[in-house]
Amino acid sequence: MAKVPVLKLNDGNSIPQLGLGVWQVANNEAARCVKEALAAGYRLVDTAAIYGNEAGVGEGLRASGVGRKDLFVTTKLWNDKHGYDQAQQAMDDSLSKLGLAYVDLYLIHWPVAGSDKYLDAWRALVAMKEDGRARSIGVSNFPQAQLQRLIDETGVTPAVNQVELHPGFAQRPLRAFHAEQGIATEAWSPLGQGTVMQDKTLTGLAEKYGKSAAQVTLRWHLQNGLIVIPKSATPARIRANIDVLDFELSAEDMTAIDDLPEGARLGPDPERFSG
User: Alpha-carbon distance 80 to 87, whole Å?
Assistant: First the structure.
């Protein structure tokens, strides 16, 4: 079984480059999905308070037999808990549901349009890192302006920004800012909610490499230095999504995917979304 590559974060910790996302996975299905993924070689599992499945994720982690030090668990702070004390309590609630003493990465899920309370939440996350409840801290869905404000007002740069990113929505300006600041880019909806399966460039490359369009897309993410968390509750697809470590896209083929026309955002716009 090939081992998923890891990336070094700006705080010195390391994160697996490919993991399992469990958005829209029911709590009573999460344990099975997590156990299946860990048996297939995954070590990163990404959940969130708002998903309502942290307890199921924790059950799957325990049932897997994989030691805690070999796991990388991410969860996220929801939008209505951005006060400093609220964020602290939300973290404790998530840890209780997961059955863990700490998470490897804790993220602010959204900046919340029209509010600057994410600054208080970020100060709470900094305290969580200091007391050990979060090994690394970061954000999700943060545009450049909010990232810059976090850095300027607290002096602490997020380790990760998890954003919608897929072929045709490659987030190049934001990725360039991340690179300047040493922030790792993590992609949600990395398969464009299934749209990659209909793209002629990607299906053509799938035929060339003897892989699926989804596998070619995940390989593109990896070779771009992105962290990627495809979601699936189907055992065969969970296994297929990690079966991307035995081939490499050529530079020419990477460019062909990079050059796909820029399409529309599929999820909420962080500049407008308040949750």
Answer: 9
